[in-house]
Amino acid sequence: MQISAHGLSLEIDDQGPTKAPPLLMIMGLGMQLIAWPEGLVQALLAAGFRVIRFDNRDAGLSQHLDHLGVPNIAIASVQHLLHLPVRSPYTLADMARDALGVLDALGLQSAHVCGASMGGMIAQQLALLAPERVQSLTLIMTNSGSRMLPGPSMRVRSALLSRPSDPHDFAALAERTYKLFRLIGSPAYPAPEAELRQRIMASLRRSNRPQGVLRQLAAIAADTHRAGQLGRIKVPTLIQHGDKDPLIPVAAAHDLARRISGAQLDVIPGMGHDLPEQLWPRFVGGIQRVAGRAG
């Protein structure tokens, strides 16, 4: 379903009773709302939530912003490493305002918020921008934006930035994505090959916007002041992170827990940078507990 939010056309999926506690789920870099697995959504619905997913700007079926141009990620990466300012077509705070627009469009005064990876960064910005709109905060495999944190290995970084020589070669793009997901996935909970390939193909058929990924990546690199502001977050917060995450190393979770007062930390053995089916009960239980702390 398309809605108008923060001046953009965004695709949303809204499931569950309208009077149930709303849970806004924000996905990561270049990912679509379907990256929140339907089985996980059904488990959250069974736990009593109204589950609201949406495609971020520049991803999926939401509005794409190609008129903003394509940032030079090589230059942005060097600037980030040298602690220099990074320019981006838009900011993570802008994306947080998109999320607020989703709540506005649905007539919701507030919601529980869960964000994964870049979605967790957007969720932090949302809690900073409008704390009265956030009932609880669940941050999965994400970071504070501090430049002092360890980053991905060169192997992971190279895989993340790689592109097929022919952007229209669907098979090559699917294979590149499969190799990336295998590289960053959970070593203790590897997804079956056929299932993983099926999910990748479904995502690519639904939408493929590589330029949008680069604009989102620039927004992440430019978001350097968030870490120093996180002490302002007072809502009940849960941090869930795998101890085998090669994209955002687990040191980021400990850093977040230090910065957000009262945050609870759940480090998950064997988990990488994905959402394995075996861990869905743990994710759901964690979201239930932190929502319960919000009363």
Query: What structural class results from the helix and strand content?
Result: alpha/beta
Radius of gyration equals 18 Å
Count of beta strands: 8
User: What name goes with the CATH superfamily?
Assistant: Alpha/Beta hydrolase fold, catalytic domain
How do the SSEs run, as a string of H and E? EEEHEHHEHEHHHHEHEH
* Total helical segments: 10
Determine the CATH topology.
Rossmann fold
Low-confidence stretches: none
Fraction of residues in β-strands: 15-25%
The first-to-last residue Cα distance is 30 Å
Mean pLDDT score, rounded? 94
Biggest pleated-sheet summary: 8 strands, mixed
Question: What is the overall silhouette?
Answer: globular
CATH architecture annotation: 3-Layer(aba) Sandwich
Kindly provide the name of the CATH class.
Alpha Beta
Helix content: 25-40%
* Largest sheet strand order: 1-2-4-3-5-6-7-8
Give the total of domains: 1
Structure, explained:
By secondary structure, the chain is α/β, with parallel strands linked by helices. The protein has one domain (2-151, 210-293): Alpha/Beta hydrolase fold, catalytic domain (Rossmann fold, 3-Layer(aba) Sandwich), CATH 3.40.50. 40% of the residues lie in helices and 16% in strands. It has ten helices and eight strands. It has an eight-stranded mixed sheet with strand order 1-2-4-3-5-6-7-8, sandwiched between helices. β1 and β2 (8-15) form a beta hairpin. α2 packs parallel to α8, α3 crosses α4 (118-129) and α6 crosses α7 (193-206). The protein is globular, with a radius of gyration of 18 Å. The two termini are 30 Å apart.
